[in-house]
Protein: Response regulatory domain-containing protein
Amino acid sequence: MTVERAIVLLAEKSPSLVVVGDLAADGEPHQALAAIAQLRSQRFMGPIIVISNWLTQAYRARLFTAGVTDAFHKDDLCSDRISKALRRVRTRK
Structure:
């Protein structure tokens, strides 16, 4: 499935949460920024969490400016951090 088709399906189904994997092999992770922009242009207003293998402070700031709810580096994932992020999502409703 293409990213574009996934965006359309997400906009149609309006899930309560979207998790975007931004795991670029070439060190250029900006796929998440494009996906977030497409989701928001399709009027998806729900929370978005990004998991990236390239999460600098500058990139993290760009993600939050684009409208993500939370962002994690793939190496920093643990059940406690995920649980806290999901609780924050639930309290935003």
In short: The two ends are 30 Å apart (CA to CA).
